[in-house]
Write a structure and sequence with these properties.
24% helix, 4-stranded antiparallel sheet, binds 2-amino-4-trifluoromethylsulfanyl-butyric acid, binds cobalt (II) ion
Length: 269
Amino acid sequence: MEESRGRVTREGIRIYDPQEFEGMRVAGRAAAEILDAVTPHVVPGTTTAAIDAFIEDEVKRMGVTSATIGYKGYRHASCISINHVVCHGIPGPKVVKDGDIMNIDVTVIVDGWFGDSSRMYVAGTANRKAERLIDVTHDALMVGIEAVKPGNTFGDIGHAIQTFVEGNRMSVVRDFCGHGIGRVFHAPPNVLHYGRAGSGAVLEEGMIFTIEPMVNLGRPETKVLSDDWTAVTRDKSLSAQFEHSVAVTADGVEIFTLSPKGIFHPSKR
Ligand code: MF3
Ligand code: CO
Ligand code: CO
């Protein structure tokens, strides 16, 4: 039998040849460069539509393709989720205020490979609670990534994230998850950001997926607004999210969407 070419696990998870990771490096770097470039545009007085227009221009300038424009009827190059918006915020005429925090999520396609990443931005100065939420959410993603190595399970990733977040008296959103990625945008498995250690599929070298925990200051419940996209916290509490596209390597993990400028976390700006 051909060793790993085109293999799919019994859970439906594609195993890529590590030689194919180069495609993910290029796509992941493109997404990260766009997220770096948008940073100076997140200022009080702008609109989320203006930020998205900048992102769409960057996508064109770089000669890559937006994965979100036209995806299930979505029309924008980014999702911009402000304050109590959990994810899938639609860019529009909303004016950004001093102290607003927002997640900007960009997915691009380069040579058929999908690079998906999101991070938090602060317009002006955030208050201490918001800063703490951003820190805990960033560190929750990193704690999840640290659990990625062959032999661990997807449950180990979720368990690490949930334990860390709840230990900081915040909550993990259950209604949205990470996903397999690679030559498709959303593939098996669902990557839960909560769970039991040792549960779920076993991680194998060659798996490619996102980890993208959403963390709320209040309760975890969400609802989707009548636009059918915008997800908000039911209790109106503040929410944050960070996302990387990663692969399982022979001895651990490779992150494809690292910030070339080293500004993934907003207070390093
Ligand atoms: N990038 C998002 C994710 O992390 C998906 C956005 S789909 C859209 O999976 F249509 F809302 F843009
Ligand atoms: Co994603
Ligand atoms: Co995303």
